[in-house]
Batch of 4 targets.
Target 1
Amino acid sequence: MTPAIEVANLTKKYGETVAVENLSLTVPGGTMFGFLGPNGSGKSTTIGCLTGLLDPTAGDIRILGEPFHDGAVALKRRMGVMPESLGLFDALYAHEFLFFQARMFGLDEETARHRVNELLDAMELGGTGKKRLSEFSAGMRKRVAFAAAVIHGPDLLFLDEPFESIDPAGVASIKQWLHKITAQGRTVFLTTHVLETVERTCSQVAIITKPGKLVWQGDIGALDRDGTISHDGTEFRTLEQLFLHLTGERYAELDWL
Amino acid sequence: MNAPLILRLVGLRYKLLWAQTRTRNGRIVLFLVGYLFAVLILILMTAGGIGAAMLAVRSGQAETVAQAVLGGLFVNALIASVVTGFGINTAFTDAALRRYALTAWDRLAARHLTGILEPVWIFVLGLDLGLATGMYVFGAGSFWLGAVAVVLLLITDYLLARVLATLIEWLSHVKGGTAILFLMLLSVGFLPSVLIPRLVAAHGAKESVLAALHYTPPFAAAALMVNAGRLLHHFGLLAVWIAALLVALAAIEKQAARPRSAAAAAVAWDNRYDRIASIFGPAMAPLIGRSLRYYVRSNKVRFNYIAAIPLLAFLTFNRSANAAESGPLHYFVRALGAFAVAGFLGTAVMSTNQFGFDASGFRRYFLLPIAPGAILRASSFTALFVGSTLVAAALVLWVLFAPVPYDPRMTPMLLASGVGGLCLFNALSIWTSLLAPRPTSFETTFGNQLSLAANVLLIGGVLAGVFGVVVLDKMAGPAAVLSYWWAAILAAALAIVFYLYSLRRGEAIFVSQRERLLNTLEGRN
């Protein structure tokens, strides 16, 4: 299967500040791929470059087997993105926003309306017809953003912190849908700080540290099979242990707390 | 009362203002505002304050001059704050202050203390104090009485501006409120031109009006400033005004704070916006439908939209004394200026800052499978379209009601002025939106959240349109203006060319500058 994402020597600088440095990464097609890193390590910047929001300073990106650049309109139509900031238009109602998204991604009016109704019901947002997005709770906003990312049935889905703020039932539904998406050979690229979620949902993981440097990529199926992941001769029983080891992050002690 | 915490919040407000100067644009704004502030204070203290005091003493009519100066400043500060939003920005909302250890009264005090200490009100206080100082220096009044009087006057002015702004904000949210607002604005626009000539003609009306004016805050403050006697009466009058306005403000704020809507309702598909947007073609329709919803649902735009025609009618028809001297054709020349700004005035709060209301939605534009230039095009076309409805409405009203003899050249000239103004100002709005954007709250009706460049365009553009034609009228006269009817059409054609150029150039800048725009609009700059 063609890799969903191929990144070679990606660098992104803001002036003198390096946000992503020489990142090379391959995401196999049809996988649920976890992209992990500490705060400020360049995850969102990388996603920005992979989705056309930001211009890379250097490096090559191929999406679904084709070279990706800012003007790759046809490729963008095959991608769904849920940004960390959600990117909602607050003055609209949920159904208007989803309809707008569907129409922009080429769905005809009837299909768009049908899918909007189905998604709103599935997301338990059916009773929000007179409520603007600005009035939605954080969890509801996240559900709408997720619906907007999947409404056109993308081949590659980027999700930045998709489960944060959503209630357990909502998280369970989304996880089921994500499994269905990958079972159909489509790819999910997600970032989250909840490592247990990654352990349970992802098959492949990449870990980066500041400034956007890849320190590990591999299959985490070993955790399920053997109960450990080996790295540099050390065995880690959880993804969290491996993550802390690789990123050098530690718990800070506060005497007064 | 938790005075130390309230004072710390006032300090925080000024720190936040100062923080805006950390960017390059912020420093430029600070320099310009500081320079203008100093120059204006100097000019107005000497010309308006001490100069007025000299005039007052020489003419022997100190109280009359004080009434005129304080009355003028009072009304102008009120109009400036309500119309432009300066001076009624909400630094801290009640909800934001709830996180601190403050009682309800503390929060009220903190909000209004930070409000009245906004630079605009300090500027007005400076002007008022200029007069008080002048009166004292030339022996026409007591400094301390004058100082206390202007402080009390400033408090009344601030409270009245707040009451009006909160009332309008509340009306713009409730059902039927927009219609009430429109009627209020129509009254403000047309009543003076109807009432003033009748009052002037009626026997004894002038004396009655003057007697009533003595109960207004500026007249009470003027009496105190020149120590005209009955001190307790005048202090009491100002105190009653302040108390009444505080009660009114508390009542309206309580009403306005009640939660609106949010009742569960099934999805109702409303295609009006999409149907209108479909005239721009299938590719642009979703984008324009989205933009239209923003324009129609924004309280700021709605208020400006319904206020535009009454305000311009007021400016066109309320110079009756001068017009009566040379005939109603002068109305036509003034209408040329009003038409030029009509379409822009109604939409400017959004069109000069086209992406400021999008918040994180701005990010989504670049994830869409379209050429990004289409976003700018759609946004600008929407502003043009909404503005053009105002030009059309103004033209219909003019043809039906204007008290001006018919001349076949007038309608095309007014139409050319409307279209030309719309294109010129929307072309300039493209530049302010791209080069001086600012994140803006969609929900509020008041408070000036535009950048300096957008403010210069909005205020300068309207002043140039409305008063530029007064100069033209005085220099050339209506007959000469009418004889050059083709010049209006030529100017409109040039404005259209400039608009198309700006759009094309702007599209390229929109793409190349998107990361800078993203940072600014998401508050990282």
Note: The two ends of chain A are 52 Å apart (CA to CA).
Target 2
Amino acid sequence: MNETDTRAIEQTLRIGARPETVWRYWTDPQRMCDWWGVGAELDPRPGGTCRVEMGAGPVMQGEFLELVPYERIVFSFGWESPDGVPAIAPGSTRVEVTLSPDGEDTILTLRHTGIPVAHADEHAAGWGHFLPRLAQAAAG
Amino acid sequence: MDQALRAVADPTRRAILRLVRDGDLPAGAIAAHFPSMSRPAVSQHLRVLSDAGLVEVRPAGNRRLYRWRPEGLRDAAAFLEEMWSHRLARLKAAAEREEERP
């Protein structure tokens, strides 16, 4: 694998809550633990810590890079590799979250870039498997 | 990925993964490494690892050999795709609950 061998993930979903509410789920440690992780240390300003203990395995280590209140959050994302979990070096990948109001709802788009890939042929099955679930999650 | 993460969250299962990483082993040889644990308990751990796609099993004569399945987790993109898919669904539910909208 060479360093340019990376992949991006993009997911979009509609949330029946306003961007101001959704925003707090990315910046308030207590709310973040309602959906991601069992512990979180968040210092939501550029250069601030973004650390999420995922409970069952890795601890996400990152840093906030950009914050536009209620619109956009960017943070770096990495973790040390526990056994069996793919290693993602701290700072090596990047997550961009955008929140767009749509009536009373929010359209959330998450783009995770810089993800190392192994071999393309190992992935084909994975994508076919996950896309239906993604549609289900988005519809849910 | 939540399934895979749950599978590796347990120290016994991580120890099993280390054992089978270097070569195929029958269940008996794996169980021998955990003298304080019952055989059914070890079998249950092997089943969790197998269901999560982290080990694969192949028959060899009258035994079943377990081996590490590196592609089970090395594929970071699939791993993260599933993680975000699960987690964002939870975020959606939590945010909607907060605004008390069904």
Note: The longest helix of chain B spans residues 76-98.
Target 3
Amino acid sequence: MLARRYAFRLIAMAILLAFAAFFFVPIIWLLLAPTKTDYQVLHESPFAFGSLSTFAHTFHRVITYQGDLMLTWLKNSAIYSVGGTALALLAAIPAGYGLALTQFIGRRALLSITLVVMIMPATALVLPLFLEASAVHLIGTVWSVILPFAFFPFGVYLAYIYFSSTIPRDLLAAARIDGAGEWGVFRHVALPLARPIIALVAFFAFVADWNNYYLPFVMTYDNSQYPVQVGLQVLISSAPVFSPTASGNASVELFRPDLAMATLITILPVVIVFMFAQRTLVTGMLSGATKG
Amino acid sequence: MTIPLATVVSDERVSARRRRRAGGRRGGQPAGSSRTAGYLFVSVYVVLLLALGVAPTVYAIALALSAPGGVGFAHFINTFNFFEFAPAFEHIFEFEGIWLATQTVFVVTLALMVHTLAHRVSSVFRFIFYLPGAMAGAASVVVWLFMFDPHTSPWAFILHAFHFQQLANTVVPGNLPIIFAIMAFFTGAGGWIVIMYGALNNIPRELIEAAEIDGSNVFQTALRIKLPLIRKWIVYMLVLSFAAGSQLFVEPQILAVATVGEVPAQWSPNQLAYYLAFQLDRFNDAAAISVDLLVIGLLVAVLLVWRGKLFEVD
């Protein structure tokens, strides 16, 4: 019996480690590839470490590719993501509060619509959004990306769940008795207690916005407007590794370590946010649902 | 793909429900709260909902239904007869079949395994599984391009076993559904494992202990106690993943660029809609495909909200 239990544990651990490798090996490869030259990437072990100086050199090549293209894309991504997230918070937090702690005609209907829109994949709306943005002459402006990002029903639902389950209504009633108006109650009582949910909504909005490809791909015109996710496609299409005919017009050719470095730079902001949010993501968000 | 988002919805719901069961929610309406205040709090969101959710949907439907003589289904029929229409949906359904089947088996199995580990060890695994979620989008496609290239891949020994000697052997149209399934699993599975883990933790410990006292071994406890109790979340994962998978765009789009024509630029319905709109200027036909996709998404959403009983609106 004991032997069988050990055997099971051993098999389970082997399977878990195999899958951990599946998820982690590409990340390791991505970290190591920019430390090597293209030749080394092709001919040395995928897990071999090149040198820090090659890493720095690759970083420099990517950051200075065609002037400051990468920095422009990163700046655009930051504007779209931070702008979208800020507006999403501005709309979602009061809306979640209103849906959870006030009564008005149409509240249930609004909540149901929010759920439906939340589940429907946003990409289905991208082309219709383009047509709408085009009709109001927003194409090519930052608003064509930021405004659709600001519409974040998932954040509204998270805020609704939070306010309806964690804010003591007696506390709000006490503030009203003390003479606070509805806005004052929200601003001075509910909002300071809502920091965890503001952080959570901001996290999900930012990650979704930063990683979004299709919407900015449709809404933006050229390199000066692309976010870094769309920029990655530009790099691939101009890298002779994948597009042998496409390298002629570039002053600097991009190789495999450069593409890996560009990918690394692209995901870095989200990885940093992931690292900071790790506790919340893997344990904290399951508060009330975690072991021990 | 919107899967990572979905994970927390349900986690939040799980914990919210627990808190409520435990008496965390206080009933009754707060004194002094007025309807006007409620409207004001939701006003910004409602404006965004109308302008960026309802309006584009209505606009797309109007475009798709517009016909020379008034209203009609001409654009739907146009797209249906378009020779790349049926293959695009076939591609998606083939991809979904592979992805959903493997994701369900692996996510549930891994979540059950992680749940048997000590908390500290399991949190390391959960983080490793979840981390690729940071790479959703174009970044993961670029990484997997290198993973599928036998010249650069750490998995070259597996690729060689399938007689793939170069990227052009791996990334061929016949392999695309599997390739996209691997990419989707890579970025999305971790989030679902975390959520299944959360659902498993909601099972009362006494129930599991009672089963063990009755002689139930690890397998029996997993299959007969734990699995039925997280069935709802498995259905939730399947339905939501299906809706997200039908919208595939970035993966085939970047592969089409990277393989210089090997992957057709109209592989998925969303790509076809994009192609119709921006290459052929057939916006009404593109709107018809958007409406098709919206209907799929809407059906799934309505099914979940009204029949799934996973969501709480009161």
Note: Residues 72-219 of chain A form a domain with the MetI-like fold fold (CATH 1.10.3720.10).
Target 4
Amino acid sequence: MPTATYAGTEVTVNDEGFFEDPSQWTEAMAPEIARSEGIDELTEPHWQVIKFMRTEYTEKGTGPTVRVLGKTSGVSVKELYQLFPKGPAKVAAKIAGIPKPRGCI
Amino acid sequence: MVTKRVVILGGGTGGTLSANRLRRLYPTDDVQIVVVDQNDDHVYQPGLLFVPFGLADGDEIVRSRHHQLHSGIEYRQVPIDHVELDTDSVHLEDGAVLDYDVLVVATGSVLVEEETDGLTGPGWLEKVFTFYDLAGAAALRQALEAFDGGRLVVNVVDLPIKCPVAPLEFCFLADWYFHQRDIRDRVEMIYVTPLDSAFTKPVASKTLAGLLEEKGVDLVTEFNTGQVDGSGGRLVSYDEREVPFDLAVVVPLHGGASYVAKSPGLGDELGFVPVDAHTLQSAAKPNVFAIGDAAGVPTSKAGSVTHFEGEVLVENIRRHLAGEPLDANYDGHVNCFIETGFGKALLIDFNYDTEPLPGHYPTSVGLPLLKESRLNHLGKLMFQSLYWHSLLPGRDLPGVSSAMPASGKNTKVAL
């Protein structure tokens, strides 16, 4: 199993860099993960989405899709793409230390 | 015993086959069955794919909803306003209230075109179409007849959608159609998907991507459509990529029926009803079940799913009414014929745990899986008759079981 080190702590991740165990995540790790995804600074709206992702994961066992994020996070899909240009659901999940959203079949 | 009342919302595939199976199971004195729907048009939805190519007509694929219901089932044709889980009641738009002992949500999914910026704006039904409803499919047929060359773009806005293979089948049939008209060399075809490959499941995705390539259809992946600009003739993604088109066939976003959002606790953010993936019972209330496209379970929204769920649903309703623990178990079984054009089709068969694999169905001497064949095409054509005469009446189809058969599948496939 691959590992990564954020904020001085080693964590287990999958091949694509998503956390295997969300309990290993701390807020201090988020800025570093964000930088590796090309986001230099986490602003307040970034944090709003990140915290929302973690709450959703805790309640439902999977992170939300972009469309559900747009309906429920208080941030529109357009803004979500401005915050996380490479794909809000995936990138925010990675920064929030939860597995890749399962999406739909 | 006091007569119980089962209210079934929706007279489509799931509602009809559930009602008919329940009616056979219980005498009318024991269980009253009421089906509610807002109109009397039962569309054989797999037929919509064929309408744009002149291979089926609208009147061949629509029948009366209430005529598909066995005698002894009450049919109420009225829109649903909302459901009150606390009082076990359905409130209808005409003001009537239906109390229930068991509720089955079978109202499928609806197209929410308006959720995509510009989709129904300028150019809608002129150069931007969908074949996911009958009016759209019929309008598209005229547009295709008038189309004599240019860029045809087929776009899935986002999942979930009904029958996730249908947009691919549309590409395959369009390739055949333009060949028949001898203008294939004048048509550029592009398939634009939000997924990172042609389909959701790896082995089948490889086969389907290969077919797109073979038929000269370009594939654009990870494209999240933010805007459809009909007058400018382009799709624009949220990350500002553009795909130009002369004719666009768009599969709009789907949601649950609109009354679900007005029914506190019943549905999720998209209006689908979260239920246990195996028992189909709602997490919100034990006397509420969902079947088919309306159900929020992690499998395809497809008629075969609804059919396989039906047997499990009815057994679990029986158990619930008898006060027994639910143990009927839906395994996520999906079975789809995929039209590939030129009189051939593929067949895929999978469930929650097993992705679509090559081999044969249902056993090693059956129909070929994940492989083009004439037999599969004939199977798809034959199915329409089985749908009206066996599946909706709630009969078991010979050789087709609710649980996915494993015996004919080749489980050792290299990706």
Note: The longest strand of chain B covers residues 334-341.
